[in-house]
């Protein structure tokens, strides 16, 4: 899109919106004319498809801004507030997002290749389908981020506990296959992380694999016993007993509701292992 036309659309969108504070409009014009707007107030600004490559937005307030499909490649967004911002398919290649607040941001399909996310807050951000080849995310907060289908997510960053928490978020939203995969990733890092066997067993049960669930809980039981974790051992055994009994009753036609009724019975016990 022609730069002048793109700028016109941005300003037109602002003029049709609710009346804005004059200072905000000046900041927006400053950004679009010079690409230099550190510490500016751009909260809720309409910047869809804006051409902001290499822009200086250091510590700018871009909370809830619409930046979908915007070109922010090479931009300096260090320390910026991007809480709840719409960054759908935004180009953030090589962008400096160190220390930025991206809590709850929509980054679906965004290109974060080579971006610096060191110490950034990604809690609750949706990164589904995002590209993250060679991104730096040391120290970033990602516990409740949605990471479905992320491409080239930096390895060695997430801990088993991180994957376990992410799996719980997936399971709560009904994405049981995603939860199963994340529990498996946790176990690839630490094969003795017993809570992941418990969680993966529940995911297997949700997907109709009762025997697989029992197999996972059997392993969890053995690990908990070895670790001297009596509560974990007893919980694993209860999971197994409840499921075996329910499966047997189902075979005899004495139980209705299938595996879902078993899951509902086990769910409260699983919550105690959410780290």
UniProtKB/TrEMBL annotation:
Q: List UniProt keywords, sorted A-Z.
A: Signal
Among InterPro entries, the record links this protein to:
5peptide_repeat, Pentapeptide-BTB/POZ_domain, TPR-like_helical_dom_sf, TPR_rpt
Q: Which residues form the signal peptide?
A: 1-22
Q: What is this protein called?
A: Pentapeptide repeat-containing protein
Q: What does the organism's lineage look like at the top?
A: Bacteria, Bacillati, Cyanobacteriota, Cyanophyceae, Desertifilales
